[in-house]
Amino acid sequence: MNTEANPPRLLLSVKEAAKQLSVCERTLFTLTKTGQLAAVRIRRRVCYLLSDIQKFVESQRTQALE
User: Fold this and answer.
1) From residue 22, how far is each of 6, 8, 47 by CA, in Å?
2) Mean pLDDT of 37-64
3) Contact yes or no for 28/37 (Cβ under 8 A)
4) For residue 1, pLDDT beyond 70
C-alpha cells in the first residue's frame, strides 16, 4: 500500500473528534471552551488535531485503585 497516496490526516472534524472521544459534540465544545482541549479554527470551521485528542485522553487517565 502506498502511503504517499493516503497521507495521515492531521485534523478531525467536530463530528470525528467527538466520535474518537465517545462524547457528544456539545461536550466536545464544552471541553474546548473551558480550555481542556485545544481546537484549530480555519475560517469558520473548527477542527481538532489528532495529537491533541490523544494528549487529552492521556491526561484523563487515572491510576488503578488498589
Assistant:
1) 25, 21, 16
2) 92
3) yes
4) no
